[in-house]
Input
Amino acid sequence: MNLLVDINIVVFALVFSLFAVETGIALLNLLAYEKVWKRTTQYIAASWAISGTFLVFYIVNFEATYPLILTQAGTLYIVPVLLAGLFVIFRNAFIAYSEYAEDAVAKKTFVRVYAISTLIAVFLLISVLSSTVTGTGVNLSTMSLDYLEILFNPYNLLMFVCTAAVSILAVIMLLSIEKPLGFDKVTALSLLLVIIIATFLYATLTYAPFVAQGLGSRWLYLIPGVVMLLVAAGLYLNRKGRWNAICAFLWLVTTVSGFETLGHPKIFGGALSISSFLAPQSAASASLIITVCTAMLLAVGAGLLIYANRKSSKKVARY
Amino acid sequence: MGIMLDSVFFDRFAMGFSLGVHILIVMFGVTMPVIILLADYLWIAKGDMVYKTLSNRLVTAFAILFAVGTASGTLVAIDLLVLWPKFMALVGQVAISTVNIEVIVFFAEAIFLTTYFLYRERFSSKYVRVVLMAIVAIAAASSGVMITYLNSFMNTPVGFNITAYLHNGTLTDIRPFAVFSAPAATIEVPHVLSTVYFAGSATIMAYFALMLMLSKDRKRKEYYGKALRLAFGVCMVAVVFAIITGVLSIESLMTLQPEKYAAIEINVNTTANAPEIIGGTIVNGTVQGAWLIIPTLQSLLAGGTASAVVPGLSQFPRSTWPPLFIHTLFDLMVMFGFGIGGVLALLLVMHLLKVRVFDMKIVQIILVLIGCAAIFILEAGWIVDEVGRQPWIIYNVMAVSQAANQSQTSGLLAILIIIAYAVILPITYFVIRAVFSKRPLDKELRQ
Output
């Protein structure tokens, strides 16, 4: 592993986590709009622009880290990636419209379109991710995709179900909305059960080719899932803690990083090693410097936003 | 004879359409923060609440446009990756610093705009909002600057051993920050920035002129009058810089991209005493259908003397000539640009002589027309630059057809991109209208 690859994985985990939270918010808004829109809108209003920019950051970071694979990646994934891009346009536009809609019906419609667009974009991006890991639906010799297969294969569907279940749980912990939702222990346990089954099947199925090639044992690929579940249970039980929201997000980021690191550096079910597509040293050093600057700016920016938010909360409380 | 529509055509079309729309949104995204910043400053400095109302209303429209702009920017980033993968593979190794830094400044813009938008009334010092918006304005401009650096790299590539790359296709001697010294950037960066400010402020000025024309009430007239003068000030400064940098950029083309220069000026042969030809095109090796020919003017403008030699297309292979319609487009753009510059200068002089020019109906109509022409100038300038580089995506290094994704699905995706924008843009307009219909200006001015 090299530092640039590590950073790329962390950036990916951050993007995935930010969009996973939005997946949870989208699902909850579709299922129980009246109960959650107020609280979720507060989060989305402050974060959608930053999440969207993170997506672009990841694209650029990927281009800087693996420039030699771009010709193949662009050729293979033009359809799902461009379609996802179109739905990201709808996501951004409709969340902004919903912020300004005064009329309740219009607001609800805008939120619904936002939610559906987000879910489709996330599903398409998960399909791309899933197919790069497993190689399902990818024909490397003709550099073509079987679109139906990459979208509706068991690995992909399981990954989406797992992401959806985890994201709902994460959003509930992140935004502390179990009360308005009427989220009880039975629902929590049911959700955990879905996650357990989906994670087990996903890890077993997805990494089967890696195990077959002797790249680690079957149990190794289950470790992140088990750790994720233990931490999820711990977080849920201690959900009144002050740092709960931060912990919930960090848990999500760490879990995604864990899963992402498992197959590395092999992709397409172990058929290719991504290490051979890395940027040359001089370009990598330049990217590293710029990425460190980005991280510093983000830290300062996040600090400013939190400071402004707390200051405003205090003022509001005083009135 | 039928037209062959291959995948490269659709790649070009999809990219061109996405960028053509994105440029319009960027034009507002770069200019609006400057006008909001000035309105905030004038409110604090003069204590005039009209400027605060102006700032509050503009920032709402800006926030909605920013959301759409962020999305179309994301689509452009994705377009670059999937439509031109071989180009991005080269950029990823040599010039990615530009896009990387663009993301940093975009983060800054997103964070500080969110802070301004949500919390500006919460800070005890009024100047905090000015500082926040100044950062947004600088970040928005820097974002454009970074992308222009990448475009300059496409026009005058640097940062790797070009001879070795053309010989064996491998990139050697890579200098990732050399992209910031691309020769075309010296003039291209200030020219792009000034034209974007010009087009953005002219369009906003046109809106205020139209609203002033339609206003009956005194308060509304005062509001739109002040807003119009503010946008006019920004437009006046920008147009001066746009004209100066525009003239310099034509001069620099002569040495940096002679084919583009020759096509823009429709020069058949390399010659001294070259005339300035307005209109026309090349038929059978000679210029035909010119609207106006001014002897020797081109040599005088390009080199300062009549004996200055200017390049002609005949010195290059026919296969590397750009499409010649850029000559007509360029002529129209220059005529509009100088015309607008002259009209604005005249209005400024009259305004300084205490003539109430902005209250005149005819001036208001002219300003509305200038706004429309400014959009044409911005788009035409971009088309002249991009089409003028054809058939290259990276000048003399990589042809567009080499860089393009050869997937047969490009056509369908191009249509989907058009549909997406066709849905988004009208809704954006109606949402902005609906927002302001719930926030009547008269009520805000009274408050």
Chain B touches chain A through 71 residues (CB under 8 Å).
